[in-house]
Amino acid sequence: MNGVTDLFDRPIRDLRVSVTDRCNFRCTYCMPKEVFGPGHDFLPRDQLLTFEEIASVTGAFVARGVNKVRITGGEPLLRKGIEELVAMLSAIDGVDDLTMTTNASLLARKAPALAAAGLDRVTVSLDAMDDPTFQAMNDVGFPVGTVLEAIDVAAEAGLGPVKVNAVIKRGVNEHAVVDMASHFKGSGHIVRFIEYMDVGNTNGWRLDDVVPADEMIKMIDQIHPVEALSPNYPGEVANRFRYRDGSGEVGIIASVTKPFCGSCTRARVSAEGMLFTCLFATSGTSLRDAIRSGDEVGRAIDEVWGKRDDRYSEVRSAHTPRIGTPVEMSYIGG
Ligand code: SAM
Ligand code: SF4
Ligand code: SF4
Fold first, then answer.
1. All domains of the chain, ordered by start, with CATH?
2. Exposure string for 243-275, b = 16+ CB within 10 A, e = fewer
3. Which ligand is nearest to the CA of 196?
4. Which residues contact 317 (CB under 8 A, 6 or more apart)?
5. Buried/exposed 140-156: b ≥16 CB within 10 Å, e otherwise
6. What is the mean pLDDT of residues 282-294?
7. In this predicted model, what pLDDT tens digit does every residue of 141-175 receive, in sequence order?
8. Is residue 60 classed as helix, strand or coil in its secondary structure?
9. Which residue, judged by its Cα, is nearest atom 4 of ligand 3?
10. Is the beta carbon of 102 within 6 A of some atom in ligand 2?
11. How does pLDDT run across 28-45, given as a tens digit for each residue?
12. Which of 110, 112, 218, 252 has the fewest beta carbons closer than 10 A?
């Protein structure tokens, strides 16, 4: 195995592959309608990596130490025949953990085929337990009930325990912290609250919109007492807490107030095959061009990773204007 490390001695361990930049939701913090409206130019099909190309790129990452692969988007279940890709990736020797992040709109229908193809688990995004809040956040009127149903179907199909990701935004869905913790406590599913991040350039992020992790955990602790757990593995992004009554756990992803760049071993590949070494990157390197021109993808990865010095969240300042335009979450994959 090639042990390439970056300038801060971080190896590559996880890969997030985006399979489409399209989505059937318009979450206000990710793909606001004003920007991603009917006239928006999404990637044309021939620009997307084919499943064979994705499998080949993944194989090159695995040869460099990656063992966790997450399929994401846009909405990954919108990509036609996605279960074929799942089967191809799960067949790669060295992929120990194959997961997908989805808005669950199509999950109930697809969960059995995904599980049969070798997907290990799913993470489902859900931002509130009440329809008025969730529908305003996904901005296409999608109901909570359908997501909850899909979570149960996925768990029954063997894709659990399901992690449920909720992005919390000040003044929008703070009440969802206690609502969701109460709903999922004891269910076997694990809710993870995510601090609203300044990814991309379109969501109008302000530091004031962030509900800090400490505040969220205090809200939960007041209703359902919790205690901190140690990480499952080095570099785990979620801070984990267990309910003191033994009825499960809850996580907080504090990317803004407690950044974890020091242990960030994650590479991201966009649907068109651009390699990004940070969620907040302003530019990437085309692995698709390398593949399509017959170059060795592995060498391109080594070159990029060897020069990596990203630690955006650790140096972030709400008052420091960024140089360059960061890529959008829906493009790079969350
Ligand atoms: N469409 C799928 C979904 O929503 O699960 C996968 C892609 S989405 C970009 C991946 C994750 O990124 C979701 O859990 C979403 O909530 C999260 N996300 C998007 N924009 C975010 C932001 N500004 N801050 C924090 N998390 C964000
Ligand atoms: Fe779509 Fe996911 Fe972004 Fe929401 S968070 S707009 S579901 S890609
Ligand atoms: Fe990793 Fe970049 Fe996030 Fe830091 S800011 S944890 S380097 S993706």
1. 14-332 (3.20.20.70)
2. beeeebbbbbbbbbeebbbeebbbbbbbbbbbb
3. 1
4. none
5. eebebeebbebbebbbe
6. 92
7. 999 999 999 999 999 999 999 999 999 999 999 99
8. helix
9. 261
10. no
11. 999 999 999 999 999 999
12. 218
